[in-house]
Amino acid sequence: MTEIAIYGAGGFGREVNLIIQQLIKKGHPYHFLGFFDDEDKTLELGNSYLGNTEKLNNWKTPISIALGIGSGKIRKKIVERITNPQVDFSKVISPYAFFNDIISIGKGSIICAGANLTTNIVIGDFAVVNLNATIGHDTRLGDYSSVMPGANLAGNVNLKECAYVGSGASILNGIVMGENSVLGSGGVLIKNLEANRIAIGVPAKILEK
Ligand SMILES: CC(C)(COP(=O)(O)OP(=O)(O)OC[C@H]1O[C@@H](n2cnc3c(N)ncnc32)[C@H](O)[C@@H]1OP(=O)(O)O)[C@@H](O)C(=O)NCCC(=O)NCCS
């Protein structure tokens, strides 16, 4: 039996809990302990609130952590703060995702219901593929990258570390999104996007601030 908890008690954390509960119903050997969060959630969660990073870093027995946090940059910050050798990071794959053996998925990544991944896809550590996203052939999703609900990535797309694809956005074949870059919700990316840039619209253009 694996003792598992979620870091992040917000909306996405509760969605990750739903996946874990569905996996348990299907016989996956998880025992769900509750939620960690930076903020004290005792009032909302009672005994299911397990504490903050400090509490996790003092946890005395093996514990698996799933990250229930939508932003890759924040996932990265939290992972960097967790130093306890008792902690390992679960990859959590919805039983309702379309998924196969020729996809490699790194530790701590989350694949949500309805996500459809095809062939020769490599997903790094701590990535998120959210509800109903489609990921085409030969695509690379870097560490801490995020593909939000209903986004569509064609073949050979390459998301670098912490790249973020907003809900309902699309990316054409062979496009590279640089580190920390963001494609806004509903955007269609037809050219490579440099690191640390935000692009919006159809076709997507750089958002200058
Ligand atoms: C692109 C995005 C990151 C920009 O956020 P931001 O930096 O806070 O930008 P602002 O909200 O200040 O908007 C700046 C301008 O861009 C426009 N804009 C913002 N997001 C846009 C989008 N997705 N498509 C088109 N235009 C957009 C705004 O209307 C505003 O235009 P204006 O200056 O003419 O008024 C954000 O809007 C977005 O799309 N995030 C993804 C959300 C998502 O997918 N969430 C999934 C949750 S599960």
From TrEMBL:
Chain sites annotated for binding substrate: G70
Annotated GO MF terms: acyltransferase activity
Coiled-coil regions listed in the entry: none
InterPro entries (UniProt xref): AcTrfase_PglD-like, PglD_N, Trans_hexapeptide_repeat, Trimer_LpxA-like_sf
Residues annotated as the enzyme's active site: H137 (proton acceptor)
Alphabetically ordered keywords of this record: Acyltransferase, Transferase
Domain PglD N-terminal, residue spans: 4-82
UniProt keyword Transmembrane helix present: no
Feature type site, description Increases basicity of active site His: D138
Short name of one Pfam family: PglD_N
Similarity field: Belongs to the transferase hexapeptide repeat family.
Name this protein carries in UniProt: Sugar O-acyltransferase, sialic acid O-acetyltransferase NeuD family
